[in-house]
């Protein structure tokens, strides 16, 4: 009898905590992650300021991805990017990473315009590496899913740090 | 026989996809969410620029939380904040929300210094509401867990929008 009462009590407690939490009228949402699908095992900076700070203090290059959730080119690049273990491993161990769906006020991050997807590298000396680009002359920082090898080679370029002028 | 072969094949595919993903040497990580525990059912802006844009375009006030993961005062406030259904409901329906663990470059967001936890309101006209504060004269934008009623009353103040001067 005691056991039954305890079970009922535990059940009621469980129910009240399940129903007690705020729920939007439109139904339960899955919380958005900082990775936004670009690599769930990487530790993503939230803002550009934070990413620059990490880059400087750890002396690691920064990779910034500009993308949009409803852009098929961004989605296609994200798929190969997140599934490429070589990219993910190098980024995890050697880079600071940031992905943004909203532009920053820093014009250096859009050397040839604001388009997505676009990938910029920033040196720990806080210099945007406008010299590291992909293979499209009209959108120098764009990458297609088939450009993974170029991206990897650019990551290696970014790892050769500029001499800090600070 | 066909069925067995198919099962083995499916098993191998499942295994290869489970073991094929990049795994950090330190073990699997749980991806950080944009909410960082301040309300998993709210839709959080990622950056201040993004939050200001949402606030202006939706004509909703913005609530900005500055906090730190390893700060016990931040943690204590987060617990009551995330579990208070009235706060969560009003924020979800009437506000734009942003939480930051790294300071922005905008000095208006630190009228009396950079400390955590600290909560600032911003009007859709992009005016930081330095007039909406808590009950501590030395840290005007700090809230303790017992200050939930003051926070709610301040949220209601913030909902009375300033006249846009734009």
Note the topology:
2 copies of one chain form a homodimer.
Chain A (H helix, E strand, L loop, with lengths): L1 H19 L23 E2 L2 H11 L3 E5 L5 H12 L1 H10 L1 E5 L17 E5 L25 H12 L7
Parallel strand pairs in A: 1-3, 2-3
Antiparallel strand pairs in A: 2-4
Protein name (chains A, B): Anterior gradient 2, protein disulphide isomerase family member
Family (chains A, B): Belongs to the AGR family.
Main location (chains A, B): endoplasmic reticulum
The CATH superfamily label of the domain at 48-159 in chain A reads Glutaredoxin
Q: Helical content of chain A, roughly?
A: 25-40%
Sheet of most strands of chain A:
4 strands, mixed
Q: Which ranges of chain A are low-confidence, i.e. pLDDT below 50, for 5 or more consecutive residues?
A: none
Give the CATH level 1 class of the domain at 48-159 in chain A. Alpha Beta
What is the second-level CATH architecture of the domain at 48-159 in chain A? 3-Layer(aba) Sandwich
Mean pLDDT of chain A: 92
Biggest interface found:
A-B, 34 and 34 residues
């Amino acid at each position: 009898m005691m056991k039954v009462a305890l079970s009922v009590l535990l059940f009621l407690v469980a129910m009240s905590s399940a129903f007690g939490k705020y729920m939007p009228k439109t139904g339960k949402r899955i919380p958005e992650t900082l990775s936004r699908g670009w690599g769930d095992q990487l530790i993503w900076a939230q803002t550009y300021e934070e990413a620059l700070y990490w880059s400087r203090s750890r002396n690691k290059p920064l990779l910034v991805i500009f993308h949009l959730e409803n852009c098929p080119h961004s989605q296609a690049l994200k798929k190969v990017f997140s599934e490429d273990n070589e990219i993910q491993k190098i980024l995890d161990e050697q880079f600071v990473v940031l992905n943004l769906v909203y532009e920053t006020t820093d014009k250096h991050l859009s050397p040839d315009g604001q388009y997505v997807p676009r990938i910029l590298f920033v040196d720990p000396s806080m210099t945007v590496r406008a010299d590291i680009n992909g293979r499209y002359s009209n959108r120098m920082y764009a990458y297609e899913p088939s450009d993974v090898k170029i991206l990897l080679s650019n990551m290696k370029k970014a790892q050769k740090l500029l001499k800090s002028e600070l």
